[in-house]
Amino acid sequence: MKKLKDRIVQDGRILPGDILKVDSFLNHQMDPELLMEIALCFKEKFKNIEANKIVTIEASGIAPAVMLGYVMKLPVVFVKKKVPSTMENMLVRDVRSYTKKRIYTVSISADYLTADDHIIFIDDFLAYGNAARGIIDLCAQSGSTIEAMGFVIEKGFQGGGDALRREGYDVVSLAIVDQIENSQVIFRENDD
Amino acid sequence: MKKLKDRIVQDGRILPGDILKVDSFLNHQMDPELLMEIALCFKEKFKNIEANKIVTIEASGIAPAVMLGYVMKLPVVFVKKKVPSTMENMLVRDVRSYTKKRIYTVSISADYLTADDHIIFIDDFLAYGNAARGIIDLCAQSGSTIEAMGFVIEKGFQGGGDALRREGYDVVSLAIVDQIENSQVIFRENDD
Q1: Which of B103, B153, B102, B101 is nearest to B127 (CA)?
Q2: How far apart are CA A58 and CA B109, in angstroms?
Q3: Entry pTM
Q4: How far is B166 from chain A (nearest CA, A)?
Q5: From A127, A128, B57, B86, which residue has the greatest number of CB atoms within 10 Å?
């Protein structure tokens, strides 16, 4: 998605350790008009996908997922990064975060992820794919089917996306960063 | 907002301890079309407000805030419920949660909340008003101005909204639950 890549080049910041920060428009401060364009781009990519629900993970997956739910007229469920004390009937899984070097627990109500569901998983970032692995496990627990996965930005050099593709998952990323070199972002050539 | 109140009556669940659960359409599973109608209702209520930014708090404030940002053409920033290790220049404040009986830390980048900002604060629920107090403090730290606050559901019987109104804040709630009696929700009469 050219407009997204242009925005990453224009407003993204590279921190020491090749960390790409997009918190001025995507995952802290958010540009709702860009999010709508992202949603329309995902909708076009998923036009042949039969899904009845969108699943995302808090917190920064929620904005693109809700916009996509709006344009695709589908409900959205967000997976929580904890096990809420006031919720029952939860599906639960531990996820290892490489970025934050810790293990966190993700959970979703079994009321909203069932064997009848065909889902599209949406998140802002795909790096090593650990959050996606958590979702795959929650879907397996519930008997639901993952029809596709969509990520706003994929860090191709961390390999999570290509591993998922090799396993047969339909993974769409609107901007794939293959390298960060001399504080420059180098995108993978793709048709997005 | 009649459609919201009808939806609360239809799909809300009352748990022991007078807890109102709306996790089938608002804060776990989300109905994006309802969220758009909520956003349009807020936009109408805030038509005389001069604001340049919407501020919300993760996680369940993000969806209504982003929809409102879209219809009002304003950027949205979400306050984090922790202090991220990879972010600098953060404004920080402790907030006491009565519901969860614990203290959590909220934070926002000082890059995205400044003395130039005139904000609308949006959240899904207003109960005792502790999250709102945290936002008020972050805004004071940054020198920004709170022009209005909008909540999808206010639990009137917990008093946070009326206290904020007495202090002069422009507080808009689209559904105010004044009582839960015999598992029935009783709404405050208002023009929403």
Answers
A1: B153
A2: 19
A3: 0.96
A4: 31
A5: B57
Mean pLDDT of the A50-54 span: 98
Give the tokens for residue B34.
Answer: 């309802």
pLDDT digits (tens, 9 = 90+) for A89-128: 999 999 988 766 789 999 999 999 999 999 999 999 999 9
Angle formed at CA B118 by CA B113 and CA B119, multiple of 5 degrees: 75
Q: What is the ipTM of this complex?
A: 0.96
Measured between CB atoms, which of A23, A59, A77 is closest to B29? A77
Give dist(CA B154, CA B123) in Å, integer.
Answer: 10
A189 touches chain B (CB under 8 A): no
Please, are residues B143 and B121 in contact by the beta-carbon 8 Å criterion? Answer: no
Q: Which of B23, B62, B66 sits opposite A109 (nearest CB)?
A: B23
* Least Cα separation, residue A118 to chain B (angstroms): 15
Residue B78 sits at the chain A interface (C-beta within 8 Å):
yes
B132/B59 Cα distance (integer angstroms) = 14
Q: Do B78 and A15 touch (CB under 8 A)?
A: no
Minimal-distance CA residue of chain A relative to B79 = A28
| pLDDT score for A189 | 85
Helix A62-72 crosses helix A32-45 at what angle (to 10 degrees)?
A: 60
Q: Does B102 touch chain A (CB under 8 A)?
A: no
* Positions in chain B whose pLDDT score sits under 50: none
